[in-house]
Design a protein that fits this description.
Number of helices: 15
Structural class: alpha+beta
Strand content: 5-15%
Mean pLDDT: 76
Helix content: 55-70%
Low-confidence stretches: 7-43, 162-166, 407-419
Radius of gyration: 27 Å
Number of domains: 2
Largest sheet: 8 strands, mixed
């Protein structure tokens, strides 16, 4: 192989960490002033802080916090008929049963069934996220709108406030506080949805880890996420501004790792979909049409990140074009990137999804790309479509596992060459 390790990732991480620190300082100094101004003008500053804290906690643990929030509203209400949909007893009963079922599945001793249910829970997480956002955003946006209007007015005053432009400053301030009223609420709604999406994406990593973790790790992972959401709720109960500061810190930390979390969530979603639908039973038509150059979807592995500079677990397409194998992917689904993959390469048959890579001089398997689970069992099609020169069993393939088991009860030579 003529591949060389890529360099220069440390500077980007240091810059991101410094930017997060600056944003945290700015939020900690500027937001309380805007909050106090909005509270003095409308009396809703603390309500906005409480709503933002609830919003963040819902994104961290949507199922648990949606149930707790609805149950608290139901217990405090004197008129159950006037309650919103998320505090209705029918909805709370259905949600409670679903959460209890997914909690009990972590104690099923049969590992394959547990993984199937974990894939179902990954899909259920999307439904919980949509329900939590629908329950939180309508109450959060009207409270954040005065803050957005105040911030817009202060920004306009800073720009046009010098004496030479006093009239322009007054006009700009009037425009910001009047004509932008509807726009401020729309911006608040978009910002609230974006904050929720970023935080939910990072919290969803727990569900993806359940797909690849042993059974005993599930209570630890879920308990940690529930503890984080409970801590946010407890700090908010002590004082709304304390809960707001903790929520801002959580959001800023989530922004720092959202790129990795997004790629991990995409991988977990497609893995769950392929597992539940058993897509590997039917060959991918893109591979069956030889010569069409449609390629196969794959995720970048550790070696692709180290040697080609492709972010790990980036979803893309491997295809042969102009006589060369290329990997094309998009950053955040928008910014197209492409890299040429030098050969020769081999397709490795593994326990789950096949992989594309090579063996180093010591004979160790180096994985560049991992295909989707739907390509399991179609390694020969992958080899022909991508121009790989061989299909080989990796250390954990079913073929080698069966050979090793036969070696336990057969000849010594069969056992030694099984792996």
């Amino acid at each position: 192989m003529t591949l060389k390790p890529m360099q220069g990732g440390g500077r980007l991480k240091s810059t991101a960490a410094a930017l997060t620190f600056v944003l945290a300082l700015g939020a900690g100094t500027a937001f309380p002033e805007a909050l106090a101004a909005a509270q003095g003008a409308s009396g809703s500053g603390y309500e906005a802080a409480e709503a933002f804290g609830d919003h963040t906690a819902l994104a961290v643990a949507p199922g648990l916090m949606l149930l707790a929030r609805g149950a608290a509203a139901y217990a405090a209400s004197d008129d159950p008929e006037s309650l919103p949909w998320n505090a209705r007893p029918e909805f709370l009963a259905i949600l409670g049963i679903a959460l209890a079922a997914f909690l009990l599945k972590d104690f099923i001793p049969f590992e394959p069934l547990q993984k199937l249910l974990a894939a179902s829970e990954e899909g259920f997480m999307y439904l919980l996220g949509a329900l939590s956002l629908g329950a939180s955003l309508p109450s959060l946006a009207p409270l954040l709108a005065p803050l957005a209007q105040e911030a817009a007015g202060q920004a306009a005053a800073l720009v046009f406030a010098p004496p030479a432009h006093a009239q322009a400053g007054e006009a700009a301030y009037a425009l910001a506080s009047g004509a932008w009223a509807a726009a401020a609420q729309a911006v608040a709604a978009v910002a609230g949805a974006a904050v929720f999406a970023v935080t939910w994406c990072v919290a969803n990593v727990v569900n993806v880890l359940l797909l690849v973790s042993p059974a005993f790790a599930a209570p630890v992972l879920k308990g940690g996420r529930a503890a984080a959401a409970g801590a946010l709720a407890a700090l908010q109960a002590v004082h709304p501004l304390l809960g707001l500061a903790a929520s801002l810190l959580v959001v800023l930390l989530c922004i720092l790792v959202v790129r990795w979390s997004f790629r991990f969530t995409v991988w977990g979603t497609l893995f769950s979909f392929d597992l539940l639908t058993r897509r590997w039973r039917i060959p991918d038509p893109a591979l069956a049409w030889e010569g069409a150059g449609l390629g196969a979807q794959a995720f970048a592995g550790h070696e692709a990140a180290r040697l080609l500079g492709v972010p790990k677990r980036s979803l893309g397409t491997l295809r042969v074009r102009d006589g060369a194998l290329r990997f094309a992917w998009r950053r955040f689904l928008f910014f197209a990137k492409e890299v040429q993959v030098p050969g020769p390469l081999m397709v490795f048959r593994r326990l789950a999804a096949p992989a594309l890579g090579f063996r180093d001089p010591q004979g160790k398997v180096r994985v560049l790309f991992v295909f989707r689970l739907r390509h399991r069992g179609h390694e020969e099609l992958l080899r022909r479509a991508l121009g790989a020169w061989a299909v080989e069993d990796s250390a954990f393939s079913p073929v080698r596992a069966w050979a090793w088991l036969k070696g336990l009860f057969g000849s010594r030579g069969a056992q030694e060459t099984a792996w």
